């Protein structure tokens, strides 16, 4: 009785966070977004593995719900522990095709700051890097990839600094950009 009551309370708390539902239709990028939104809720609620599965399945609708009914026994046969990693692997296999993933990896590989400010570039870098985890799993690879995508005038100032952490290079890139903006504003005001 107490276990059911706890799950009932957890579901109530979970639904108050307004987690998205998933139907299995539409944009393939909706798949990782759905997983990310659920993971944020799981973190807030400090869910254990089996609770994550229960709550995620509760949000599956229509085609996705039918898929899970047909697939769940294969993903979690009797005696096999339910893990979020196993669920998401199966889920991505169904709803985030290899070609969709490859497109996102290509997008990540081609990502450059261009006209974006450093904050926008970093947000896009963080979003797309999730599709290419092997390319950024080593901290030095992540730093190098981030630096390579920055505007040349910022990148050249960062190369000699030899920053080794992502946070450090991101902070330094922001500072360099702020300095450039301040200098441009100051020189512009002299001639105004």
Features of the shown structure:
192 residues; mainly alpha; 2 domains
Structure notes:
This protein is mainly alpha-helical and 192 residues long. It has two domains: 2-96, no CATH class; 107-190. The chain contains eleven helices and no strands. The chain has helices at residues 2-16, 30-45, 49-59, 62-75, 84-95, 98-110, 118-129, 133-136, 139-149, 152-158, 166-190. Helix 10 (152-158) crosses helix 11. It is elongated, with a radius of gyration of 22 Å. The model has no long low-confidence stretch (mean pLDDT 89).
Summarize this structure briefly.
This protein has 192 residues and is mainly alpha-helical. 73% of the residues lie in helices and 0% in strands.
Assembly level: single chain
Mean pLDDT: 89
Number of domains: 2
- Portion of residues within helices: over 70%
- The H/E string reads HHHHHHHHHHH
Shape by Cα distribution: elongated
How much of the sequence lies in strands comes to under 5%
Helical region count?
Answer: 11
- Summarize the main sheet: none
Q: Structural class given helices, strands, pairing?
A: mainly alpha
Evaluate the radius of gyration.
Answer: 22 Å
Number of strands: 0
